[in-house]
Amino acid sequence: VHKVADKVALIIPLSCSACIFLPHISDETRLGLRVFTLGLLPLWGMKNLFKCIRYDGNIRPHCEFFDKNKTYYGACPSGHMSFITYGTTFFSLQYGFQASIPFGLTSLVVFASGLNSNRHYVSQLIAGAGLGILYGIAAHKVVNDYVNIQVDSEISVNSHGVIGLRISHSF
Hints:
Layout: H1 2-18, H2 27-51, H3 79-95, H4 97-116, H5 122-147, E1 150-157, E2 163-170
Antiparallel strand pairs: 1-2
Helix pairs in contact: 1-2, 1-3, 1-4, 2-3, 2-5, 3-4, 3-5
């Protein structure tokens, strides 16, 4: 179960990103997927930046994946949780309740798997979820701000035959 949850936490966001190339999606959906995809890289970078910091909250719990006689850092925030909650937040805000259920359940499975396998403490999973939620809200806001831009343009010719271009933006 843990190996499947690990792969699902990464495959689902990457699969959503690949949907950009589907021919029969709307321009608004394509924009949303493009913004979502572009958000994955800075999320990955921020997660790795935090993991490089050596402090007690970044220590991994002892489990079968690590030597019990050594101290391993790099557990906070949980990368799997940050990626899946990024997708959950973004798609839930973009597409509503019908996207919230499958993504939300997947997030819960990944959370339970990280805890049950003893690879993360609860605080590390919550930190990963928090980072993903922040990025998901930001990506949703970028899409909404872009879609809701109200720009009008007009080309006209005045009485002297001079062509003019007028562009206006509503705030």
